Amino acid sequence: MSESTARVEAAALETTRTDNPVLAVLRTSFGRNLGLVVALLVICVVGVATAGDRFASADNVVTILRLAATIGVISVGMTFVITGGGIDLSVGAIMALSSVWCTTVATQDLAEDTHWIVVVVAALAVGAGCGLVNGLLVSYGGIVPFIATLAMLASARGLAEIISDKKTQIMQVPGFADFFNREILGVPFLVILFFLVAAAGWVLLNRTTFGRRTLAVGGNPEAARLAGINVKRHTVYLYVLLGLCCGVAALMIVARTTTGTSTHGGLYELDAIAAVVIGGTLLSGGRGTIVGTVLGVLIFMTLTNVFTLNNRTLSEQSLLKGAIIVAAVLLQQRLASRSNST
Amino acid sequence: MTAGPLLQMSGIVKEFPGVRALGGVDLDVRAGEVHCLLGQNGAGKSTLIKVLAAAYRPDEGTITWEGRPVSHGSPLAAIRTGIATIYQELDLVPDLSVAENVFLGHELSRAGLSQRGRTNAVVRDLLARLGHPEISPTRTVGSLSPASQQIVSMARALSHDTRLLVLDEPSAVLDQGEVDNLFRVIRGLTAEGVAIVYISHRLEEIRAIGDRITVLKDGVTVATGLPVAETPTSELIRLMTGRSIEYVFPERSHEPRALGAPVLEARGLALDGVFRDVDLTVHAGEIVGLAGLVGAGRSEILETVYGARRASAGTVSIDGKPLRRGSVGSAVKAGVGLAPEERKSQGLLLDQSVYSNITISSLGRFARGGFLRSAAEKRRAEELTRSLDVRPSGVERAVRTLSGGNQQKVVLARWLLRECRVLLLDEPTRGVDVGARSEIYQLVRRLADSGVAVVVVSSEVEEVLGLADRVLVVREGVVVHESPADEIDESRVLDLVMEGQVA
């Protein structure tokens, strides 16, 4: 029965495309991104209208981007995990643990004796290691991602507190801050790094065998397995990749705040997941968009900025964020159901 | 009972934007008859039964129930009128008990508290009426076999005091013995005056159970109320397809081909509790068929050869080189391909494009340093879809939008591209309409002629005998017979698979 209905659906889909040009455009991946750009522009217009030059200044734009960079890098990694059919609640905790590990006295001493790159290696290794544990638990332990990464969330933050003794550790390695906080052509390196990670993520997802396999694993793991893809190993790779992104994010936040602490990255998992979902990546896996994720992050950060400039409270921001998530997902479902309804 | 038809539909039209799914359908069903609905995929059968179940509202046409015109509002209204539908994909909640499923939505309760004892008793009666008193009302539905689940669905329909029962391809999930039981149940129901609308691809079933036939083609009734007994099969096929075709199997190359060294060899293969001591040898260019009941272990043998299940004993080797146990990757690397039984859930990435479904097992060939060359991928996929005549063409459309036969061609194209040495086909024509079936058969034969070793599993004995060079009959996990296909006939196979079974 589904063959014939599928055919009818396909035809129905094609005609609604011509019926309603707005919906039709929104349904393509280009259109979805366009919708996000429009949303971003609307927020910017509100920003200019309410805060004027304080919003529209170059300094402010850079501030938004600098803040967006950390969560942005994590969201890019999160896009892969979600596209591959998983979820990771531990990203904020992994980032905190990374930031603490790379700012311990031992690490900093070693870095001062040798080279600041030691800090970078430490952060990335901790991130990737946590991701590896997540991946192994999910793939080979058979624990559902929600639970496995929930456990990691608790453990990683706990470990970060033990290592740092709940104290804020100051990053004092000389070359490190200079490298990460410099500007290139007036653009902070952190922002450039974010866009580099995003560009690499886009290429990886859309132009490589790794990306294609990610879509297959998330879209139908059983079919992927029977097509000869090593689904378990690939899933591990996805979590390691996200762990690495958390390591990069840790370096960025250490550079920006000059501190490593177990309190970094509180609720980052929610912001990252929200940005990914708003961007148009399917929470059930099988479809992912890096451009959408980047736009999702920018929308959230610009919104936060507009609120801050208008002296509105954090609580009001959270309230609106929630509303935006619901609205975005409702819209996506509406679009999807029009192409999938039976 | 009323003398006139229980249900009469006339001139039913249902349009979706851009598609006329039904363009004037007539159907009349009498109480106590089995009315068969025949038509190829896409002929409009599913749409029609959804109209009947009031899931769709018809744009034109009239429906009368016991002579009174009705306009169905919602699925609930249809059920209250006494129409129930059992869809192909069973709509049961796997984690609830049998009784809870049967009364889902109309639970027996008093003052808001469910009456479990009474519910279980009623369900036990219903199951007994359906000839399955052994199914416990308290058992979890997910733990039942597909056949038993179907019985639960029917019990649910009966719990509504159903007068008309629509069965959409009920035999698709059943083996021969279970089909026989289904027929017994159906005869019992018709004897009580319940009308059955029976949808099936299998003409032999319609012969066995049907009273009258309505044939749909392209959303239009081309014949209605044909008496089953007096209508020849060729006439039915002509009506369905608009052309006269027989069920065509490709010619075997009859000269005793000098078979080369065996390509696939399984020795003493076993899977605990499913099958044991299976020896299977397939030469290049040979098609070997596995016949047997559902549950006899046929599919499991294929999946174990493929490494999707981990053998508990025995070896599988390709060209003499053993495969790693339980490793699909090792099998694929050695050139083995599987077209799985559940095409949609196991074979395809439904929402992804035709070309990425074709290239998914050969991505390395289109990659340089991990980077995919999509243009080359699409070009190659286009060549393949053209040579397999996948319709509609266009390699960027989602596989979901293709019909069953064309989806199967996409799966075959995947393994063609991979240039595999061994092809394992599990129910290659399930859900594939008659016309496309012949094409699939031709294609499989062509593959074999080009030197591929093919293993086919099918519930349809006719298919195994028609397609394969050599036949293995599997019963309860043991190979009980092996011979060239032309030295055994359908009734002998059925004898073999049924032997020792309580018929």
3D architecture notes:
The complex is a heterodimer of chains A (342) and B (503). Chain A has one domain: ABC transporter involved in vitamin B12 uptake, BtuC, CATH 1.10.3470. Chain A is globular. The termini of chain A are close together. In chain A, the strands form 2 sheets. Chain A has a two-stranded antiparallel ribbon with strand order 1-4. Chain A has 342 residues and is an all-alpha fold. With 503 residues, chain B is of the alpha/beta class. Chain B has 2 domains: 235 residues, 3-Layer(aba) Sandwich (Rossmann fold); 153 residues, Rossmann fold (3-Layer(aba) Sandwich). Chain B is 33% helix and 26% strand. In chain B, α13 packs across α14 and α14 packs parallel to α15. The longest helix of chain B is centred in the middle third of the chain and has 16 residues. Chains A and B meet through α1, α12 and α13 of A and α1, α10, α11 and β20 of B.
